[in-house]
Amino acid sequence: MCVQLKTDTGAQRSVPINLGSPLRLSFRHSIYGSQIEEVFVLRRDGFELVQLRYGEARLVDFYGYENAEHENALWVVTPTPTLLPSLNLILSADASMSLHFDRHANFKQLVIQPGSALRLTVATCENSADD
Q1: Most exposed residue of 2, 46, 76, 113, measured as fewest CB within 10 angstroms of its CB?
Q2: What are the residue ranges spanned by the domains of the chain?
């Protein structure tokens, strides 16, 4: 299986993945400026949100969660697992994000540039040389 990445300019890329491995999406909160990390598990039919990691306790409240654990200077929320068939990431001109595929040896991190958009889907790899 692969994660298909398609930019707003039409450029495409495939990243081979192992089902069940994590994908981390990191960015700064637009109001508070503190770090947020969303952790997804890669499934055949999409991305399962399994954990949220906040740099500040007030973000737990901001997003409406009642329970969080304080671990290694972060506030960790384990939400009800939610399966999303795709991720549509649209960044403002003053924002940036990064993606990290934890178990892919040759693809450590992808930085998504301010003012751009990226669509991620899980699909069968069309060509193993796309990486």
Answers
A1: 113
A2: 2-113
